[in-house]
Amino acid sequence: MQLRCGNPKFRTRRLIFEACRIIYVGEGSSEVDAYIRQCPPKTQIRLREVRKAILEAAPGAVEGIRQFRIPSVAYPGYSHGVYDGVFVWYGLQRNHVGLYLRPPTISDHKKELAGYAATKSAVHLPLDRKVSAKLVKLLVKSSIKIMKEA
Questions:
Q1: Number of domains observed in the structure of the chain
Q2: pTM (2 d.p.)
Q3: N-to-C CA span, the chain
Q4: 131: domain CATH number?
Q5: How far are the Cα atoms of 37, 46, 62, 70, 109 from residue 43, in angstroms, in the given order?
Q6: Is residue 3 part of a domain?
Q7: CA spacing 20 to 30 A to 101: which of 39, 112, 122, 148?
Q8: 2 within some domain
Q9: DSSP 28
């Protein structure tokens, strides 16, 4: 891969970012395991923390790599709509783990998300800070509720 950037620091970050994107789309924990293994070792810890919290908050859910080539978690049987029962996605970005939830999950929990960068449907979990499993579980449960009510 040839990059056209004079800053070697950026080139390194870009290669790390791209390394996590080279995976197959599929369903099951083996695809998610492969995604996490392809990410830099220091970031794998954060991804595993997020994954564990999501799966604890959503018993019986199915994980896989779907729409956006990042790990996602879904409940079979809720396939109405565009996301086939998916209620959360997560993935490594340059400086954070992105946690992507169904709107209006983020706006419903602005108070709890104070101190985190967030958009309409994403929370940026910093790589240099332990993931709050309690917060992730709260957001995931809210996203599930929104999906089931849709």
A1: 1
A2: 0.81
A3: 43
A4: 3.90.1150.200
A5: 10, 5, 23, 15, 26
A6: no
A7: 39
A8: no
A9: S
Scored b (16 or more CB within 10 A) or e, 20-57 reads: beebeeeeeeebbeebbeebeeebbebbebbbebbbeb
Q: How many helices (H) and strands (E) does the chain have?
A: 5, 7
pLDDT digits (tens, 9 = 90+) for 9-64: 434 444 444 444 434 445 568 999 999 999 999 999 999 999 999 999 999 999 99
d(CA 16, CA 21) in angstroms, rounded, equals: 9
Which secondary structure element, helix H or strand E, spans residue 96, and what is its range? strand 96-101
> Is 91 among the domain residues?
yes
Which one, of 44, 47, 43, 54, lies nearest residue 135 by Cα? Answer: 54
Model confidence pLDDT, tens digit, residues 82-95: 688 999 999 999 99
Residues of the domain holding 30: 8-149
How wide is the angle at C-alpha 65 spanned by C-alphas 61 and 71, nearest 5°?
Answer: 70
Amino acid at 100: Y
